[in-house]
Description:
The complex is a heterodimer. Chain A is of the alpha/beta class. Chain A is built from eleven helices and ten strands. Chain A has a six-stranded mixed beta sheet, sandwiched between helices. Chain A has a four-stranded antiparallel beta sheet with strand order 2-1-4-5, covered by helices on one side. Chain A is globular and about 70 Å long. Chain B is an all-alpha fold. Chain B has one domain: ABC transporter involved in vitamin B12 uptake, BtuC (Orthogonal Bundle). In chain B, 70% of the residues lie in helices and 3% in strands. In chain B, the strands form two sheets. Chain B has a two-stranded antiparallel ribbon with strand order 1-4. In chain B, strands 2-3 form a two-stranded antiparallel ribbon. In chain B, strand 2 (167-169) and strand 3 (172-174) form a beta hairpin. In chain B, helix 3 runs antiparallel to helix 11, helix 3 (49-74) crosses helix 12 and helix 9 (202-212) packs across helix 11.
Amino acid sequence: MSDHAALLQVENLSLAFGGVKALQGVSFNVEAGELFSIIGPNGAGKTSMLNCISGRYHPQVGEIRFRGGEITQLKPNQRCNLGIGRTFQNLALFNHMSVLDNIMVGRHHLLKNNFLTGGLYWLTGARREELEHRRQVEEIIDFLEITHIRKAQAGTLSYGLRKRVELARAVALKPDLILLDEPMAGMNHEEKEDMARYIIDLNEEWGMTVVMIEHDMGVVMDLSHRVMVLDFGKRIAEGLPDEILDNELVKKAYLGEEDDALAEDVAAGEVA
Amino acid sequence: MSLGSSMRPCGDFRTTYASDMTIFATPVTRYLAIAFIIALLFVPLFGSPYMLNLMIQIGYYGIAALGLNLVVGFTGQISLGHSAFFGFGAFASAWLNNAFGVPVFFAIPLAGCLTMLIGLFVGIPAGRIKGLYLAIATLASQFILEDFFARANWFTGGSAGAMAEYLTIFGYTFDTDQSYFYVVLFYVVLMFTFTSNLIRSRDGRALIAVRDHYLSAEIMGINLTWYRVMSFGLSALYAGIGGALFGHYLGFVSVEGFTIILSIQFLAMIIIGGLGSIYGTILGVIFMVLLPEVMEWSVHLFSASMPELIQSLAYIKEMAIGLAIILFLIFEPEGLAHRWQRIKTYWKLYPFSY
């Protein structure tokens, strides 16, 4: 791994479902320690991009490198071992488990006990190991302020809390790169503020590199170090939040075109 | 129940994580369970052979049903071939003992391991297919194994069946209901404790995660194929040990016993007891073992007024099992374990409902 290689490198990524081209030749880099946002209108391919990085989809063309090593064809669980964690847009908790167990599942790849040593619990050190990880998981529970619900069944919680538990579970993976798919969707103002604080803390104090998809522009522009904009599977812009706000192509993607002449002007003139 | 509330008695404060990760919810329930097991130790002293026979049945079926619950209740996969594993365990233990002279003491766990290998092999399709398709695949394994039992003379004695020696330790032979009760009790306590530990450690959580949301389980670093196949292997291990205990209890293992009917009965046990519940498993087994007996008692009760009932006893037993499954699916699909939980909650919160 060279000193200059970015933590995550995505190169010329294309993904198609039959005739639908979800992603077309998208490239970007995420540096270690960055808080990187992907935005775009509905159907732009943001979640497909995240699914490619986390391994649920395998792109037809292109390469994904993590810490310099290629991971394009690895299975999701192998990527998790390398240090990539994620949350889902539509909740994907283990609904019949307690919040605590949900988060403990996140420790799966860090725990060593198996079905035999786990079954013998007291004799094999599994108990000690579980206790040690329980202690670390409690730190995450403390940090995300979900102590009062740690024993509640995940499926019975409110939407905002479930989102937070999902974040806790992803944090429990101890990832270097955490992918957040719309962490604030469907939340009220207060919950959004909390979530924004958690994300900043994760990035700055816990040292995680964050790749986030979010629709709330206020949040994206305030939190992100850099922003990439996707539209119809293509990267139309990338840069600092302020640059993105002023970008005509981005405005066009979100607000629509007023007339063709203007659009051509914009395309010819403003975008490099 | 409100958010995060548990049915913990007030004043029960946990000061260590260890005290929050125990198998039993409170020390009182733990002592009660231990007291119950100790009480069971005295049952052979005064229990009738009939009663002991029923309890031994509950024991070996309970171990096998627990295995099925691991694969169906905890991992969320369907298995219709469980009785074939049960039979394989019975034959394997008898075969190890007869053909190689392995003492029965070692043959029982070894038979469990052999059955586990078969289970892992049969479970391979589970790595790729789910639901109804998996049901058909396991059904196929049931029939293949049944056919194998009938033809493999070297292994099962074919249609003649296999003799299974009684368990002997240091010259003492466990050939009575009274003594064999302790053997079964030992294995029941062992396997249920093992499972309770499994469920509260890494791999148990992984199995439940695969059941609840396999896509996010994979993102959490869980190897889906391995856990799906392994849950079949584990379930076969339990069935194999249960079957071996069954074989050495009866002293004779015959091919006819391990049909699809028994597989369905195992499924009925865990559905009635509670899918994904360890103590529910044993409740379901008790229910299913006692149901035919209760039917028999009641038929004899009514036989004075309706003597023709006796002739249809066999059918009445079968129908009662079917009826019980249907009634449970309608009125208590989460099983006896859930019902027990509701009763406890009711009394704890009485006279309020919240």
